[in-house]
Amino acid sequence: MSSDKGADRPAGPALQCDRVVAGYGDAPVVREVSLTAAPGRVLCVVGPNGAGKSTLLRALLGLVRVRQGTVTLGGKDVTNKPLEELARSGIGYVPQGEDVFDTLRVTENLDMGGFILSRAERQARMDAVLDIFPALRRLTRRYAGTLSGGERKMVALARVLMSDPDVLLLDEPTAGLAAELTRMVLEEQVRLLAGLGKAVLLVEQKAEAALSVADDAAVLVNGQIALTGTGAEVLANEDVGEIFLGGAGRGKGWMQSMWAGSAGSAGTDGTVHSTGIA
Ligand SMILES: Nc1ncnc2c1ncn2[C@@H]1O[C@H](COP(=O)(O)OP(=O)(O)O)[C@@H](O)[C@H]1O
Ligand SMILES: [Mg+2]
């Protein structure tokens, strides 16, 4: 495995999927999806609730069976390989929702992310990860349950970095976070990972915020890619509102409505401003 050496780091492998079909029952949820997550770039897949974003990530991870199409890592076929094998091959995954262990200390949470490493490697790797997220250093003894929303996300990202993945799959890392923290997680934490040379595949419902930090972007609707482009192109595309909201969007108004959808959690995370990480 490679390490976080910065600019002189050789480019890692790209994760690609080609016409992937996957789902749970008879009707496929993900339909003929083709994407490339390239090293050093953030690929953002936005789409409404239920579009199939989480299922797509699970299919790439071998957690939901791919029925048609292929998934390749650095050109090597990894379709339907077990999660542990994918982890050893350099793919890291941060699932949606509760992703840290509240009753464990930060260091213990990180240790769990290094399960494929030897004890000595784990210690060295933890130092490297704490260099990537220096704000975590003064929190290492804290129980994760006592941390703010933004700090918990940092722990979740740091935990997956323990295995030094080349490719990161992030499922709605801003879920439940207020607007300001959402921007902080995306602009600082997610961009940082791409800056380390990792290929980042981010799926998000918060379209405007996520597209703003994306190099490459795709809009997923009903399990199909409706539109692709650079993050800026998709953000600027007047049709996206219509696509996204099934005709209910009106020009730029859809962006505001996506923000309005996330505003319900604004103000619930009052501890953040005193932590110094925002
Ligand atoms: N474990 C499951 N079993 C059956 N259907 C599921 C399961 N998980 C998700 N689905 C269905 O798959 C569709 C896409 O869900 P999901 O991938 O979670 O969408 P998103 O992440 O974009 O909100 C939805 O219709 C959802 O009800
Ligand atoms: Mg989801």
What this model shows, in words?
By secondary structure, the chain is an alpha/beta fold. It has helices spanning 53-60, 83-88, 106-113, 119-132, 149-161, 179-195, 207-212, 231-236, 240-244, 253-262, and strands at residues 15-22, 30-37, 42-46, 66-73, 76-77, 91-94, 167-171, 199-204, 216-221, 224-230. β1 (15-22) and β2 (30-37) form a beta hairpin. α3 packs parallel to α5 and α5 packs parallel to α6 (179-195). The two termini are 32 Å apart. It binds adenosine-5'-diphosphate (ADP) and magnesium ion. The site of adenosine-5'-diphosphate has 10 residues, from α1.
How would you summarize what this structure contains?
The protein is an alpha/beta fold and 278 residues long. The protein is built from ten helices and ten strands. Helices cover 33% and strands 21% of the residues.
Task: Write out key terms for the chains shown.
alpha/beta, 10 helices, binds magnesium ion, six-stranded mixed β-sheet, single chain, binds adenosine-5'-diphosphate, 278 residues, four-stranded antiparallel β-sheet
